[in-house]
Design a protein that fits this description.
The complex is a heterodimer. Chain A is an alpha+beta fold. Chain A has helices spanning 6-9, 18-32, 41-57, 60-69, 76-85, 109-115, 220-225, 285-299; strands at 135-142, 150-156, 159-165, 174-177, 193-200, 206-208, 211-219, 227-233, 236-242, 251-254, 271-278. Chain B has helices at 7-14, 18-26, 46-58, 63-90, and strands at 4-6, 33-35, 38-42.
Chain lengths: 300, 95
Amino acid sequence: MAFIDYYKILEVDKKATEAEIKKAYRKLARKYHPDLNPNDKEAEKKFKEINEANEVLSHVENRKKYNDYGENWQHAEEFEKSKQQRQYHGNGQQGGFGGGFGGGGDFSDFFESMFGGPTSGGGGRGSAQFKGQDFNAELHLELKEVYTTHKRTLTINGKNIRITIPAGVENGQQIKISGMGGEVSGGGPKGNLYITFTVENHTKFKRDKNNLYATVNLDLYTALLGGEITSDTFDGKVKLTVKPGTQNGTKVKLKEKGFPIYKKEGEFGDLYLTYQIQIPTNLSEKEKKLFTELATLRTS
Amino acid sequence: MENLIPIPVLCDYYEVELSFFTNLSDMGLLEIKTIETSQYIDSDAVYEIEKMIRMHQELEVNMEGIDVVFNLLQKIDALQNELTTLKNRLRLYES
């Protein structure tokens, strides 16, 4: 458990007045408040630190205790006991204005060890919540899994919730499930459940929204003379006719062979295949001779 | 009716004046529904209202400020969605 420099966190001098501390706290709170920095874990962490620093430095007694023991905070408890034994009692009141930014709650081990818990009590402006807490969850899926609509059972805060994952969900997409969040006493509405999907792609297909892209190897002779090949699509194989004289990098579009369109059942994007012509290597003497002959024919 | 919450209930709960809600409504940040003589808000709006109350009470942001903040948050949200789409597209060009 490391010592925490609360003055540094609030970016104030050790001699800062109560008003200066309040001002610094307000300024930083406005910068890092979770409502202004949604889904920003760093800002949330910073906000908690600021809140904790304010909890200590805005209370006269807390600040005094912190200043007195500073980096020797581990001995604070012993000093306090010894003080009590000498019948030297403080007045026990907690001064200053309340922390206010409710929701803080999470205090560091250092704080808990030195002060036991938040001391602002009722002095602050509580973070009253009429509506239940919103829950956030992240769900990792494979691209193959989101090709079809399927059901999943998730365990959120000890509760099993069965949800339908529509085909075509995108990486990073968030869905809201109303009323599946936390409950709140007093009859307010339940919170919502927000699920963010992380879609991993370990297939040979690349995805851009509803379209899929893949590269298909094509042998030189089929590219030159044309022919039929079999190629993979996301849900099976298809036969393709290759035109004679097909160039390297030629793209073909297979209509509606791409990815399902989100919440549009039966509708699909397109699949784009790019031909990559394979040039034969390690030619035999006979092949070299024939290619040379071909080259001569071309130039003559 | 079951999804509507009477405004006086919210005023009591959050310890704010009725004018707080009417001001938000005047700024287009909140839709107040009037049934007979009583005023309500949709329970779906509570999450956003709580944010506004926190901004007002905890950060001392006034009504105009809340309006600006919410507009900017909406823009950030739209930009983040666009960023996610572009990141997904970028993966096409990464081997």
